[in-house]
Amino acid sequence: MTKHGDKTDNSEEAKLIIKLMKSSIIVQYFKQIKTGPLLAAFICFWLPIISFAKLANEVIENDTISYEKIVLYWIHGYSSPILDHVFYVFTSIGNVIPIVLMTFTIVAWLLYKEKYLKAFIVIACVGGAGVADFILKQVFHRDRPSLWHSAITETSYSFPSGHAMLSCALVLCIIFLLWNTRWRALTAVIGIFVISIIGLSRLYFGVHYPTDILAGWCVSIAWFAIVLALYARTKR
User: Fold this and answer.
1) Integer Cα distance of 162 and 212 in angstroms
2) I need a labelling partner for 68 at 20 to 30 A (CA). Which of 78, 104, 108, 134 fits?
3) What is the tens place of the pLDDT at every residue in 93-141?
């Protein structure tokens, strides 16, 4: 069981991270962006960061826990053997090994096509999301929900969701790579569907709170925006 003093220290660390997000050099850089794709990157960075800061504050203050439990119980009320199998497939897709294998395959193909910068972007986006997930979990130390016996066993901390973060990062990379093709709309629709179902699967099995999922998406989108902005600068 975590000591009260440790919880206080973790809360202070989390609050410090939130303040740094709002006053960082990266934020100041994005504030100066006025035109083109960098403006879109700014919007995609700033809004998710604000949302994450809000979610993180609610987690620290424990403001939403009772409502989130209601949501989890409501979702659990629809559980069935068929849905168990369906959601197990989707939650497995978001596991570390499948994400790493898919990332490796994409990077290998890009290297084969001599698209080295795009290969680096994929590595930076997915790898950076993984690093951010590990660090933030250690900072916030949020325990997993324990509301019923789940078919999924998790031992790491809950906030933010690594499944949500990694799957979102990978999907954003795929959309980016196919953006200038006729497949971009279809890719975006399928990608959004997949990351949504992966997020829902984590709630279905009761291993995450809704705020964990939302926070994972926010961090992933913000990190992707940073990488995209740096990529756009190299194309000038």
Assistant:
1) 9
2) 134
3) 999 999 999 999 999 999 999 999 999 999 999 999 999 999 999 998 8
Residue matched to tokens 């953006």:
179
Integer Cα distance of 62 and 56 in angstroms: 10
Beta strands in the chain (DSSP E): none
Please state the domain extents for the chain. 4-234
DSSP letter, residue 142: P
Q: Half-sphere exposure of 122 toward its Cβ, with a 13 Å CA cutoff?
A: 26
- Nearest-angstrom CA–CA distance, 52 and 18: 8
Written as six digits, the tokens of 170 are 């990978």
Query: 3-state DSSP call for residue 108?
Result: helix
**Runs of H (alpha helix) within 146-236:** 162-177, 184-204, 210-234
Contacts of 174 (CB under 8 A, 6+ apart): 106, 187, 191
Cis, bond preceding 160 (omega within 30 deg of 0) = yes
